[in-house]
Specification:
With 615 residues, the protein is mainly α. Among the domains are: 49 residues; 119 residues, TolB, N-terminal domain (Rossmann fold), CATH 3.40.50; 106 residues, Tetratricopeptide repeat domain (Serine Threonine Protein Phosphatase 5, Tetratricopeptide repeat). 66% of the residues lie in helices and 6% in strands. The chain has 29 helices and 7 strands. A 5-stranded mixed β-sheet has the order 2-1-5-6-7, covered by helices on one side. Strands 3-4 form a two-stranded antiparallel ribbon. The termini are far apart. This is Tetratricopeptide repeat protein. It comes from Phenylobacterium glaciei. InterPro entries: TPR-like_helical_dom_sf (IPR011990).
Length: 615
């Protein structure tokens, strides 16, 4: 249809366009054929195959690309982890190196003539090393020295592509960061033999010279000289334990003048305390040295120094000061870990129990540690444990522990001839301290020599409680009852509640026939020391003297768990049971007493009782 537009222009006829013919897609044809189960042929087949190869190649490329990306990420992570591990290992090595503090012996150089005879540099250095180890063990110091050689420490593990071994790295770190002292030296032939020269630094040398046959001994001499030069405090401690006091003292004084290390100065002060107190017998000055040592940075050394001070306070007869120092030592030790700390801790706790007259607990606490020496200590607790057993009246067991008679053991077992001999031997060696003088005078009193005892005790100080007790005992045995009572009261005021004072006071009253007065003293002692068997047993004896057999038997029964192997306890218990008409029980107690430790007087009493019962 034709026409015109509104503006007069002729209209154009719209014709519908037909779609252009399309060429079939070979790939689609091939896929349709594949889907219909008809194998494609010709170009369609080739196109489909090529398309598959392209898709597979693209997929493979993508998979490898993803794997490569992940592997790269993992490698980066592993590299980072390895870096952190290496850094951590180096940090650990550096920390260990910074704490290294010992003696490292390098192989000495030696002439070919000696090497051909087997005297190599390593052999000579090994002799030096052996002597250093012997001295360190003998010193038994809390600051034990690490001693090693430099020729057997190579780990043989090398860092790849560097040619550097881990041992080289560690050794370098120790030299940079540590405090090790390297000992070097050489052996040279002289006109008369050989000379060993060793050094611990520039200008610090020691020499030993002699014949070639003396080379092993020369190596030992060199080792000792090196130990003295490199570790003067530990060498001084070795001298103290060897009893070479006069050699040790100037060496320690020099350390205090030259060293600025607080730990070294504290160790030197502790050793000087031992020399001052136990060699020169200047006890008060010794305590001051120990107090200085206790202010050092090491807990173990500080507690050891306070333990030493407590022992010296005992020697002065200052019981209260000894208790205070012992408590301070335990507090100074705190919760310090390790076997050495446990050893000291057991000693402190046992000592505190003993100072409170609980010997049963003291023995139980110390028993697992007896016989095992520990660093810093010259003992093995044998003497102390022996004393605790003697205080429990287990005399035979106590004496088995010590090679020679121990003063406190013999005092507790009332072996007066032996205590007198011990005291006089100590005085002959120069120890005229208050405790030794009081021990001698007290033994003389018990042996019936009060006048001789008075001469010995005259020079002792008034603030020594055992000296005060001895003065009271002398007056009592001389028949001065009023003077003795006054002296016992003075001793009691000096150290209120000191059980030793009360026991001997009560026993002197009982000996004079004042059983009621004795019972008052013993009952007071029982309240102050409820874990101590002696006050209860002596109360029982006072009650027997007063005719109160039933209460006496109860007192003995009460004391038995605290000192189960005390022969006198079972003897007197049997006596109380016999008076109560309990013959079978009495016989059992007498039999038990016969199997335990008794003094000669007690055994004679038991024999008399047994004979009387047999009649």
């Amino acid at each position: 249809m034709s026409g015109v537009t509104g503006d007069g222009a002729p209209r154009r006829r719209r014709v519908k366009a037909e779609p252009a013919p399309t060429t079939p897609d070979p790939i689609e044809i091939a896929m349709e054929a594949e889907a219909a189960g008809v194998a494609p042929r010709g170009i369609a087949h080739e196109l489909l195959a090529n398309q598959n190869r392209l898709v597979q190649a693209d997929l493979t490329h993508r998979v490898w690309q993803i794997a490569s990306e992940r592997a790269g990420f993992a490698l980066k992570v592993l590299t980072g982890v390895a870096g952190v591990a290496v850094a951590g290992a180096l940090a650990a090595m550096a920390w260990q190196a910074s704490r290294s503090d010992g003696l490292v012996v390098e192989a000495f150089s030696a002439p070919p003539a000696l090497v051909s005879r087997g005297a190599t540099g390593e052999v000579v250095a090994r002799g030096v090393l052996d002597r250093l180890g012997e001295l360190d063990r003998a010193a038994n110091s809390l600051q034990s020295v690490r001693i090693a050689d430099a020729w057997t420490q190579d780990t043989k593990i090398e860092v790849a592509q560097t040619g550097v071994s881990l041992d080289d790295v560690q050794r370098l770190l120790r030299r940079w960061l540590g405090h090790e002292t390297y000992l070097t030296g050489e052996v040279v032939q002289t006109a008369t033999g050989v000379r060993i020269t060793a050094r611990t630094g520039v200008g610090r040398t020691v020499t030993a010279e002699g014949s070639a046959e003396q080379l092993p001994e020369l190596a030992r001499q060199t080792g000792e000289a090196l130990f003295r030069q490199a570790r003067p405090v530990q060498y001084a401690e070795f001298l103290v334990r060897e009893g070479r006091w006069t050699e040790a003292k100037p060496l320690l004084a020099q350390v205090l003048q030259t060293s600025d290390d607080p730990l070294t100065r504290a160790a030197a002060a502790n050793a000087l305390g031992l020399i001052t107190a136990y060699s020169e017998f200047r006890y008060a000055e010794g305590i001051e040295w120990f107090r200085r040592a206790a202010e050092g940075p090491n807990r173990l050394l500080g507690s050891l120094a306070l333990q030493n001070a407590a022992g010296v306070a005992d020697a002065l007869g200052h019981n209260r000061e000894s208790i205070v120092l012992t408590r301070q030592g335990l507090k100074r030790l705190g919760r310090e870990p390790g076997a050495v700390a446990d050893w000291y801790r057991a000693g402190f706790r046992a000592r505190l129990a003993a100072l409170e007259f609980d010997y049963h607990t003291a023995a139980r606490l110390l028993r697992p540690h007896v016989g095992r020496a520990n660093a810093g200590s010259n003992g093995t607790y044998r003497n102390t444990y022996s004393y605790y057993l003697a205080a429990l009246h287990e005399t035979t067991a106590a004496r088995r522990l010590t090679a020679t008679p121990y003063p406190l053991t013999e005092l507790s077992s009332e072996n007066w001839p032996v205590t007198l001999a011990i005291a006089r031997a100590a005085r002959a060696q120069g120890d005229a301290g208050p405790r030794i003088l009081a021990l001698e005078a007290f033994s003389l009193v018990q042996l019936g020599q009060p006048e001789a005892a008075r001469e010995v005790i005259a020079t002792t100080p008034v603030d020594c409680f055992f000296c005060a007790v001895t003065r009271a005992m002398i007056l009592s045995r001389q028949g001065d009852t009023a003077g003795a009572e006054q002296a016992f009261r003075a001793a009691d005021r000096l150290y209120p509640g000191q059980i030793t004072t009360l026991l001997y006071w009560g026993r002197e009253r009982l000996r004079r026939g004042d059983a009621q007065g004795a019972l008052q003293i013993f009952r007071r002692a029982e309240k102050l020391a409820p874990r101590f068997a002696d006050p209860a047993v002596w109360s029982g004896e006072a009650l027997l003297a007063l005719g109160d057999d039933k209460t006496a038997e109860q007192a003995f029964r009460k004391a038995e768990p605290l000192a189960p192997r005390w022969g006198r306890l079972h003897l007197k218990w049997g006596e109380a049971l016999a008076k109560l008409g309990k013959a079978a029980e009495a016989k059992a107690q007498f039999s038990q007493a016969a199997a335990l430790d008794l003094t000669s007087a007690e055994r004679a009493e038991l024999q008399a009782v047994t004979q009387k019962r047999a009649q």
